[in-house]
Task: structure prediction
Amino acid sequence: GMMGGSNEEGPVVKDLERLDLNGHVSDGDVSEVVELREGARVRYEEDAPVRIGAESAPALGHAESEAIKRRTRSLNAPSPIQQFGPCGRIMKNSAMVMTIQDPASQRLTWYKPPLTVLVIKKVRDAMVIPPFIQLVKWFINHKRMVVFVEGAIMDDPVLTRNPEFGHIQEKLMTFDEKKDDLTDKIDFVVCLGGDGTLLYASSLFQQSVPPIMAFHLGSLGFLTPFKFEDFESQVTHVLEGHAALTLRSRLRCILMKKEEEETSAKPNTNQLVLNEVVIDRGPSPYLSNIDLYLDGKLITSVQGDGLIVSTPTGSTAYAVAAGASMIHPSVPAVMVTPICPHSLSFRPIVVPAGVELKISVSPDSRNTAWVSFDGRMRQELCHGDSLRVTTSIYPIPSRYRS
Result:
């Protein structure tokens, strides 16, 4: 899920509150809530969800029953019912209200034609090379797009010795992930081969991410749903702007070293992760003791091998192996899963996407912990350091099979 500052993304609720049962707008004050009697039906704008007011709704026509099947896909849509019992109601414009965009099915539109495409391929896998060359040639010759690739692939002798590659080599733009910032340079991304390529793409874009399409070659991944065979029609479909996207939430992870906190310096480590951030005991043979805070309140101290904080996308990765549930990528949530906990009382938990988690080594822990972000940038979490995790406002817009 993605945070939005205002309520503009959601369906318009203001006028809904004035609807009476025949669909007429009442003359009263806008904030006056019209009681919804049994059988009341409230309708949102086209394409938005439909809610049914009562269990005992009258028999509905075909069109209406179809509309019900499309009812809201997210728990975060504004509720048309604002009144609770005779006296209670929701306070308007409370500062606590956050809108999280419904990530279930966003439609992609291009407001300028996409010109640049980044093609990421799995490294050290000879099987990926023929489709990679085929795809890049197609982008250059048929779509007249500028193709970016990572500079490191030029060191692969299997690729550079391929006679087909010679024709297109000088037309490619290369980048070095350590030096070059791709923000605002890439319009569209294609990943070839495996879920790891999508995680790598995520790491390249630490802010806004272009739409990503991922093809699997061989084993079907959770994140790479497309077969490469019919890539021309699939990619053309997206480039013409007809695609359905899932917004896959990412976690913003800020590691505050003890010294940085004391001098209020800017933290050195600030990462976005698509799968998970893992806190574990590292090379130490002892269990680690990790304190977990939720919005500033201590929830528990975990004694065990560590803790996985994951997105719904990451729920099918390390978290599921450690006993967590799988969560649909459209559910706005953050999952906290202990790794081999010593106490049997701490089970995997799911918290809403809007909370801030803080993780630190317990003061009485006999050893430190180690942190890694989507399996990269592994570093030590010492006594006095803290890791803060929130849902980022920059999700990954990934094309899914509609």
